[in-house]
Structures are given as C-alpha cells and as structure tokens.
C-alpha cells in the first residue's frame, strides 16, 4: 500500500485521495466552512471559520498595502510555493499536514497529520535523544514506508527556532487546512518548550482542488517574507491560523 493510500486512514490529515474522491463522487463528502467536514472515514474535521484574504492578513500584520498588492500582482511568491509543491509531490506526500523530523544524526522520520500534543512531544523528545528505536516505533503507527530524504534546510525556508538546532521539523502545510490549523499551535508549543534544540521549517502544500484560498494565502505569505523578512512571514502565518 502506498503512502497516499495510507494517509486516507489517518484521522488527523486532509489527504489528496479525498480530493480525488470528492471530485469524482459529488456529495459523497460534506463540504463545510471552506474545508471538507469529513476525512472519508467518519472522522469529523475541525471546524473552520470563514477564511481570511491575503489583503486582510497583510493589513493586520502591518504590511504596506501598495507594496503587498504589487508583490501579489507580480506573482513574486509563486516560485517558492511551486518549488515546495513539486518537492512534496516527488517524495509521495499526499495530505496536510505532513511533517518530517530530522535527528542529529540526519535520519528522517514521518509525522503524518495533526498529531495530538502528547504524540508530537514523544516524537520531539525521541529525536533530541536520537532514539532510533522509539522513532521507528512512533512512525510505525502510520504503517508507512521509511520517510524519504527531503532537503533538510534549503534556501528560502522559513525557520522558527535556532538554525543551529540539532533537530529539524519540516512541515508541509496548507493555510486553509483545518487540520493544519489545529496542528500549528502544537508545534509552536514544542518550539517554546525545547528552545534551541529544535528548529521548525515551514513549506507549502496547498490543496487547491478543495481549498480555493490556499494558494493565494501561501503566495501572500511569501510576499510577507519578501517585504518584511522571516518574522513577518511567521506573523502572517500565525494570523491566518488564529483567525
């Protein structure tokens, strides 16, 4: 069973398989508040309020209107979003949020979906200790093949935490995904808890077939980064997930 098929069994993730099924079988999945209200297994998705627009977010985080609109119109955020999408697709990622945790020795392990706080904490603690046995056990719960190698830190990554941290958490996310919204504060809490032992790298994986605002929001976040730097990027993303 491949990675995409396995992701349809995870109650904490919006899988691409659901996107396809939803397009082929109209009405089979209830659409609610801008996101699918069911993951295809009878697990109710987190509720999500009306999605904010890139312009609203830009205003809220203090970006200059004319500069932001010019950046968006010139599609200066498109290349980075496309690069992240192609990278994720090439290694078989099929839903959001999907994360890969990288240990001090360079080993990579899957974390699929909006994991509960205790499971996420177990992953991070095991990664800091470079405990391969524990990480293999945790990853094994998803019934997935070994995590593929993705670039650990690359040019253009948006980082939260110390770039010199021994552990890297790479998240592929969708700014309109309700599971990503639920997962976001959990990861923030881990970064605060473990300090300079872990760094968070955010990468884009907008599910455009079901989330019409996901790409515009993603490209807007790239404009925020270009106009205001790394801190402004995270301020933008935080605002989206908190509103």
What order do the helices and strands come in, and which of them pair?
Layout: H1 3-7, E1 14-15, H2 16-24, E2 31-32, E3 35-36, H3 54-60, H4 65-73, H5 78-90, E4 95-96, E5 98-102, E6 108-112, H6 117-128, H7 132-140, E7 158-161, E8 167-173, H8 178-194, E9 198-204, H9 214-242
Parallel strand pairs: 8-9
Antiparallel strand pairs: 1-4, 2-3, 5-6, 5-8, 7-9
Helix pairs in contact: 3-9, 4-9, 6-7, 8-9
CATH topology category name: Glutaredoxin
Radius of gyration: 17 Å
Q: H/E order of the elements?
A: HEHEEHHHEEEHHEEHEH
Q: What's the mean pLDDT score?
A: 83
Shape: globular
Q: Could you estimate the helical fraction of the residues in percent?
A: 40-55%
Measured distance between first and last alpha carbons: 37 Å
CATH architectural category: 3-Layer(aba) Sandwich
Number of helices: 9
Question: What can you tell me about this protein's structure?
Answer:
By secondary structure, the protein is of the alpha+beta class. It has one domain: Glutaredoxin (3-Layer(aba) Sandwich), CATH 3.40.30. It is 45% helix and 15% strand. It contains 9 helices and 9 strands. The strands form 3 sheets. The protein has a 5-stranded mixed beta sheet, sandwiched between helices. A two-stranded antiparallel ribbon has the order 1-4. Strands 2-3 form a two-stranded antiparallel ribbon. A hairpin with a 2-residue loop joins strand 2 and strand 3. Helix 3 packs parallel to helix 9, helix 4 packs antiparallel against helix 9 and helix 6 runs antiparallel to helix 7. It starts with a helix and ends with a helix. The N terminus is likely disordered.
């Amino acid at each position: 069973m491949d990675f995409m098929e396995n992701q349809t069994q995870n109650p904490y993730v919006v899988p691409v398989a659901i996107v396809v099924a939803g397009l082929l079988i109209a009405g089979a999945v209830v659409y609610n508040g801008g996101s699918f209200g069911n993951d295809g297994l009878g697990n109710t998705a987190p509720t999500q309020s009306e999605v904010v627009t890139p312009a609203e977010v830009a205003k809220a985080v203090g970006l200059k209107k004319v500069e932001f609109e010019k950046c968006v119109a010139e599609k200066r955020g498109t290349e980075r979003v496309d690069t992240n999408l192609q990278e994720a697709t090439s290694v078989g990622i099929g839903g959001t949020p999907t994360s890969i945790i990288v240990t001090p020795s360079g080993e990579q392990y899957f974390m699929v979906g909006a994991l509960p706080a205790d499971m996420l904490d177990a992953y991070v603690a095991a990664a800091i200790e470079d405990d391969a046995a524990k990480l293999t056990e945790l990853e094994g719960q998803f019934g997935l093949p070994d995590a593929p190698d993705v670039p650990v830190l690359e040019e253009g990554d948006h980082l939260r935490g110390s770039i010199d941290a021994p552990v890297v958490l790479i998240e592929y996310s969708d700014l309109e995904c309700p599971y990503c919204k639920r997962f976001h504060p959990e990861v923030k809490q881990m970064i605060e808890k473990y300090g300079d032992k872990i760094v968070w790298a955010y990468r884009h994986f907008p599910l455009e077939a079901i989330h019409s605002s996901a790409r515009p929001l993603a490209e807007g976040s790239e404009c925020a980064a270009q106009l205001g730097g790394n801190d402004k990027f995270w301020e933008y993303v935080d605002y989206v997930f908190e509103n």
